[in-house]
Amino acid sequence: MAAPGENMRVNADRLWDTLMDMAKIGPGIAGGNNRQTLTDADAEGRRLFQTWCEAAGLSMGVDTMGNMFMTREGTDPDALPVYIGSHLDTQPTGGKYDGVLGVLAGLEVVRSLNDLGIRTKHPIVVTNWTNEEGARFAPAMLASGVFAGIHTQDYAYARKDPEGKIFGEELKRIGWVGDEEVGARKMHAYFEYHIEQGPILEAEEKQIGVVTHCQGLWWLEFTLTGREAHTGSTPMNLRVNAGLAMSRILEMVQTVAMENQPGAVGGVGQVFFSPNSRNVLPGKVVFTVDIRSPDQAKLDGMRARIEAEAPRICEALGVGCSVEAVGHFDPVTFDPTLVASVRKAAEDLGYSHMNIISGAGHDACWAAKVAPATMIMCPCVGGLSHNEAEEISREWAAAGADVLLHAVIETAGIAE
Predict the structure, then answer these.
(1) For the packed helices 12-23 and 40-55, what is the interaxial angle rounded to 10 degrees?
(2) Which of 406, 397, 385, 377 is nearest to 209 (CA)?
(3) Across 226-319, where does the E strand assignment appear?
(4) CA-based angle 277:247:238, to the nearest 5?
(5) Which of residues 4 and 165 earns the better pLDDT score?
(6) Omega of the bond prior to 262 within 30 degrees of 0, cis?
(7) What confidence score (pLDDT) does residue 416 get?
(8) DSSP string of 33-60, one letter each residue
């Protein structure tokens, strides 16, 4: 039987083929994926994942948030499971690897253990968290947030998408409401493997990102109220232009982020104009400011300044302004023991590696509230993510999965 320090590897071709097969479900229009949460495509992807897991000997549990837990039993009946998780849902114009790599690499770890005839003391559970992206139902990491006690299930079930469809109803519609109580499961440890979603690893020519921290985040949803009016016949000095107020707030957010360098970002990725007509000034604009930093003081200071300055900008233009925090998590420090395990695995396998801070939020941020947790990252071409052009190599995918395999074995323990 192989030992964790030996040069065990996953089946790189099988992992890649699995990624490509999942990518056939919910195809995008430019080579990526549109498999948004609680859509028919999401349901189809879940069923395929279930089929693969059951073929690998895993048993399925599903909680009332639709989180999928696929379990490989351990030899110690009293040992808590080691979880490997991420998500199968995508952005509307998402890539083939964001989230999906972590779920399917978890499956590949189990398949490789089966191939090698290795039994672990602790059970291993491969997890697909519902609505990590938050693209359709804000906030992001919604179901893992309920699992960790950050949100109530009632709050989650009441979330609405831009069309007014309700999370709880859509989860029921696609047939993935389970019977487990959310958060009742206990974890020995949690691992999440993910593409970097940034350019650092590729630029530094490193195969493995050893994730030590995750940035904190605020999503601030602004609703600006102006007055609809004809763009051609309304004099400039008589306009109550919510669009103009938005543009000045966006410029202010840019200034705030730049003045908090290094280690801070801010921007806007989603805007809704109403009535959204070419020749009508908007009566209402809704947009979300996304600010992030690994430094708690910077994060909180940026939020306070933005929320103080935005109403003054609007007041000068006669525009109404309200703001709601629709997403938040504090900066996360991942478990030092698990981080060390990931680093050792990379070293034992001869993979180049570096410490890295995750710029994006992940389900691991909430899992870290209830159990020791950490992440592994692989490079992505040009740092692109949340983009159909998102790309990684077969070799990158396999390297991180190899590290995941070794770190999980060390943590779960080989049965005697």
Answers:
(1) 150
(2) 377
(3) 229-230, 265-274, 280-281, 284-293
(4) 65
(5) 165
(6) yes
(7) 83
(8) B---TTSHHHHHHHHHHHHHHHHTT-EE
